[in-house]
What does this fold into?
Amino acid sequence: MELTVEKVFLASIFHDIGKFYQRAEINSLKKIITETYRYSIESSKSYSPRHQEWGAYFYKNSGLPYKNEIEGVILNHHSPINLLSELVQLADHVSANEREDYISSENERVKNMVSTLSLVSLKYNKKNKKYKRVSRLSEFKELIDREEENIKLSYKNLWNEFEEQVKNIVREHKNTEKLDITDPFYEKIYYLLKEYTSNVPSAFFYSEPEISLFSHLSTTAAIAISIFKQYEDGFKNGDINIFKGIKSDKKIMGIVKGDVSGIQNFIYNVSQEHAVKKLRGRSFYVSYLLEIIARYIIYSEKLSISNVIYNGGGHFYLLGPAILIDKLSYYQKKIEENLFKAHGIELTVNLSGEKISLNELSGELFKNISEKVEDKKFRKFESILKKNHEEIFNLKDVSQNLCPYCHRELIGEKCEFCESFAELGDFLTKKNSFKILKTNKKVEKINSYNDIFNLFGYEIKFGDNLKDSYLTVKDKKIDFGRYIYIIKSANYVPKKDDGSIADLETIANNSNGIKKWGVLRGDVDNLGKVFGKGLGDKPPISKKATLSQEIEIFFGKFLEDIVRERFPNSSVIYSGGDDFFILGPWSDLPNLAWEIQKSLRSFSGENKDITVSMAMEFAPAKKYPVYRVALGAGNNLDIAKNYKRNGYEKNAFFNFNKVVGWEEFEEYTLIKEKLESFINKNITRKVLYVLRHFSGENRKIWRLFYYFSRLADRNKEIGKEILGFLDLILRNDNKLYKHIDSITYWVEYETREG
It folds into this structure.
């Protein structure tokens, strides 16, 4: 048979699907499968169908393309009979770090998947192992303490749903053997498997069943396609000696990192009018600019969506053949030319890559490549510098009527380009789907976000219930016949009573006390160590992919759910990878930060090695530039990251000029609530200024005793509470509670009018 990338993709991404089918334990089929594959079963000295036979039977009867060829590969991927099955076997072993060649027995107990995040180990060895329910990825709610009692039924129900969705895809796509790898059909297959196999384990025989079947399937596909493209002529010519030349230490693959530079300047530098819409639109644009650039590279190289092994948090990783690395300078030049036309030197995407061997996929691969791309930030636009030297370094003529944000000529008082991001933000809330379409449009002048996407050969079209689209709503069960998957970025925004998107003034007016809006920023502490040392010695790439996905689901879905359900006046402007940016009424943000921290702890099985630091900053005025507030919150986050105390570091929250460790937060809020209750009972506000004056002071603390005694005398009905409060905040060394000044500001702002 002639090998194509489509066949390699299907064979490798379905090679272990039988593990899922087998666990559904559909006994009525067991006899049929035994009869169908009797020779295969008996020749392996087995007594019943193994996952190979279950998987082969599924594929043969699924209606998916190349059924006979792929059935044979699935059936024989542990005992290869041709080049494709040998390729899949090799990729399978690399994905699992050479630990695979195990065939599950019929009597092996079916298990729930263990959360990888709950097992990460850096400083603390004691772990509370938590499990995931056997469920769709999008319906995953929480970890569970013990395995499901009716786990076989859960597998069966999930499998039945999966099979129905395969039928939906087959029904909607005809002549599938004529479709190429860039067709939405192949993306649907990829996302269908992501939705249905992310919460089931790849195997049970590891020390813990912590690697998801999806991570194993998708990384196997990425590896197989990379090797196939590196030796494409040999595979197509049927060269049976091809694997003799593939040594484990030979650099036959390439890893590429793409990283957005200038993301903060671009997203947050917006005018006040329709600011929330523009922020939403710009955040979406940056997220999908990376998506489109990743597509532009992988589809130019005839790779598959599985070769994008990660995309989120302002960067992506691609896995491809080693020859891809030789072409990176071409892609970098194309990106810099296009983004310079669009954004000047404000925003770009830096690429860095290196050739790797099969062995290196389990090493500190991502650390090395990240260091390279960081270095490249100091050499932005290097590829076009010579040609565009004058354009880059010439000063702008400020006498023209230019937009202060993008420096394009204004039409009247409007900037068409900047307004296109407000339109984009509007579409995201009014339309329930969007498509990413290929286009050959020529771009004469960049007037909108779509003009930039056009430069890379794509455009985005919004509408309701578009076929082969992505849903902008996340609470809908996906019909994979019609849709590809759900939007990657956060999409919730607060609205006014008339249904329009809330503006900054509306958000500020929803604050308690003083009316201001603020921002909350945060990210996971020690993420590099978590992916390095935290996963043990030489973890397979499928294990890293599983961890990435667990972090992605928390910051991509759970965080937005917390905001939508419990803090509806706030908006997740950006959330991806391991960091986030939320804009909301300032008084909601400390409590929101606490909820996020508690939820991450719960999501990681109370793992003390998984921590998050956050910082708040509020706008001095309702029309204060978002960019400056974002910058202030970023600086505050750096301070929180440097907070060390009593054997702890990081894992803290910057609030009102003080950093509070999360282990201190409950006491911190308790003291705040008591002090606030006094103000609400009409005790003089002077107490706030007195406490602030004495914070950090212990030489004349007797004066504070005197003040509180008089305060108790003047408010006899709560006199004991007042003196009890002084006992609460006075420590052994006659110093006040160390965060008392921060608390006085918090209480002052929350109890002040206007």
